[in-house]
């Protein structure tokens, strides 16, 4: 059993979700976990780390904790003041949020723990020690929900899911079935075009997770046209429900979804964000993918749905072993 220190910005959104999942996985492997919540940017605030060092030393003197953690694991942003608290340190990056300042500090880590193959290739090319651990997402499947051959886009509060371009394409096709969109008011355009008959665009905060699970399970097709992903929880969650995902044919989205378990939409590189490429889906390719989904036989839909669920279960089962191997190599 190792003493492990998780260091991350508890942002109440994606990072908080990652903290909870990683904490649970490490505890299931038998490790003792301490979580330190830090600001998004800790530059100029070393006193937080100094105070944590004093508290840790006091606990050690009282026989209630280690003098130093066996391993520090930092999520997304680099917080160098906390590195001395552990004998060894690892970073789990989301490349699209890894700033230039963060990247200058990567050499200080003993390993980069990568969620995806594209992240592995990116950091290995810089001569950094890497381990691919993948990641896991919660199981959103609910029994007893009637699934319709309908289309869903869970935009949430993200600005990198291709939402506005998707809406524009859908407006050009009144012959298409209804697209159900759920989007946060914080990111929706303040001035939107007139509503289309085949667009159910809900701009609202949904507090009851049961409503989200109902939507995820009731729609056979999920449109997840990400420009970039560190992992892609909403893609994996859709696959956990057995949905057929239409996603961007670019990494890491096409690492999660392949032609056997979803529909890939051709895309072109549209720039970079920090350490990640950005991808824009091709609108003509999207039109072809929607047409294929609409024409899909019940048998093909069932086969692709089962393949998506099987991949989800396989990925979930493999995560613990990959994480264990990485921890064992470091501790």
TrEMBL record:
Taxonomy of the source species: Bacteria, Pseudomonadati, Pseudomonadota, Gammaproteobacteria, Lysobacterales
PANTHER family: GLYCOSYLTRANSFERASE
Protein name, entry field: Glycosyltransferase family 4 protein
Domain spans labelled Glycosyl transferase family: 148-275
């Amino acid at each position: 059993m190792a003493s492990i220190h998780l260091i991350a910005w508890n942002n109440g959104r994606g990072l908080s979700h990652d903290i909870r999942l990683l904490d649970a996985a490490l505890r299931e492997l038998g490790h003792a976990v301490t979580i330190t919540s830090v600001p998004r940017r800790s530059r100029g605030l070393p006193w937080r780390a100094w105070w944590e060092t004093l508290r840790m030393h006091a606990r050690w003197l009282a026989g209630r904790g280690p003098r130093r953690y066996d391993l520090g694991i930092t999520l997304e942003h680099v917080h160098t003041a906390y590195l001395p608290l552990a004998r060894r340190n690892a970073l789990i990056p989301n490349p699209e949020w890894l700033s230039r300042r963060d990247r200058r500090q990567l050499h200080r880590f003993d390993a980069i723990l990568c969620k995806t193959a594209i992240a592995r290739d990116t950091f290995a090319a810089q001569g950094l020690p890497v381990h691919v651990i993948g990641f896991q997402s919660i199981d959103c499947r609910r029994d007893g929900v009637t699934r319709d051959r309908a289309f869903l886009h869970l935009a949430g509060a993200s600005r990198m899911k291709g939402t506005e371009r998707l809406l524009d394409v859908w407006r050009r096709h009144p012959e298409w079935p209804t697209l159900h969109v759920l989007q946060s008011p914080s990111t929706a355009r303040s001035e939107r075009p007139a509503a289309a008959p085949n667009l159910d665009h809900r701009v609202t905060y949904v507090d009851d997770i049961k409503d989200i699970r109902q939507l995820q399970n009731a729609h056979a097709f999920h449109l997840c046209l990400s420009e970039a992903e560190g992992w892609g929880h909403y893609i994996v969650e859709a696959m956990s429900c057995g949905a057929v995902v239409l996603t961007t044919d670019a990494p890491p989205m096409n690492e999660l979804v392949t032609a056997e378990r979803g529909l890939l939409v051709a895309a072109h590189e549209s720039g970079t964000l920090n350490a990640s490429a950005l991808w824009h889906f091709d609108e003509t390719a999207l039109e072809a993918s929607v047409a294929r989904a609409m024409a899909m036989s019940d048998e093909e839909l069932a086969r692709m749905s089962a393949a998506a669920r099987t991949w989800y279960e396989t990925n979930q089962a493999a995560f613990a072993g990959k994480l264990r191997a990485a921890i064992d190599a470091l501790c």
